[in-house]
Amino acid sequence: MFLPKEGPIETVSCKRAHEIMGPDMIGVDYASKFFGVDFQAQGDIHCSESTLKLYNEEGMSTLVWVPPLKTIYDISKILDNKRRDLIYDSLKYSKHSFFNESAYSHSGWQLISKVPVHGSTNRTWEKQQVFISKKVEIPSAFAVIYTVIMTYILTGERLLGQISVRCSDTISDNRFGNLRRHIDVGHFDNKLHISDSGDQAYGFIGIILSRKLN
Predict the structure, then answer these.
(1) I need a labelling partner for 120 at 20 to 30 A (CA). Which of 107, 138, 168, 205 fits?
(2) What is the pTM for the complete model shown?
């Protein structure tokens, strides 16, 4: 599915995108309401109507505006005050940089897949890289957590209910000789779990992909 054609950049207005994607769009207005900040998106979305229609017909992706200058800590703080039932042990990784630092490069419009890539489980991290291309990437933990939580709040749909996905963020953990560990998000059958794993293959950990539209 994530095989975009090369060609000139086309754009679509936010209004038209919402008409196409319906509930599978999490726009700037929802981010403003959730974080209590008056965000302003710049211009149209860098995507063609035909591409959005294709993604919408498959029903396997969410068009989401990932807000800048916000962190997983900000999400957990809001949920601790309003919806403690949605995220499990949210402060477990509070001392790690991925939890507290915002990456401006990860913000903006993205098409994020709702389900793990077919065939991405039971693969090592190295073998999962075959699904990545110039146009699609593994999203950040912030983008995944924000998309999953907002999708549930807005529609009641639980993404990643019985599985976790590796994100682009990593940590070094002295429990494992300071080896790199991948941040995983998922198993949202009850509360959303944030965990970490090594490079090994696991039957319950896949990947999802995002296509940036900035």
Answers:
(1) 107
(2) 0.91
3-state secondary structure 115-142: CCCCCCCCCCHHHHHHHCCCCEECCCHH
Helix pair angle (141-155, 72-82), 10° resolution: 30
Cβ-based neighbours of 18, under 8 Å, separated by 6 or more? 25, 27
CA atoms within 13 A on the CB side of 156: 0
pLDDT value for 203: 96
Burial pattern 127-161, b for ≥16 Cβ within 10 A else e, equals ebeebeeeebbbbbbbbbbbbbbbbbbeeeeebbe
CA–CA distance, 14 with 110 (Å, rounded to integer): 13
Give the range among 121-135, 162-176, 198-212 with minimum mean pLDDT: 162-176
- Listed in order, strand segments (DSSP E) in 28-107 are 61-66
Helix (H) or strand (E) holding 19: helix 14-21
Amino acid at 150: M
**Where in the chain does DSSP place strands (E)?**
25-26, 61-66, 108-113, 136-137, 164-173, 179-186, 193-197, 205-207, 210-212
CA–chain centroid gap for 134, Å, is: 18
SS3 167: strand
Distance between CA atoms of 187 and 89, rounded to whole angstroms?
13
What single-letter amino acid sits at 84?
Answer: R
The mean pLDDT of 70-80, rounded to a whole number, is 89
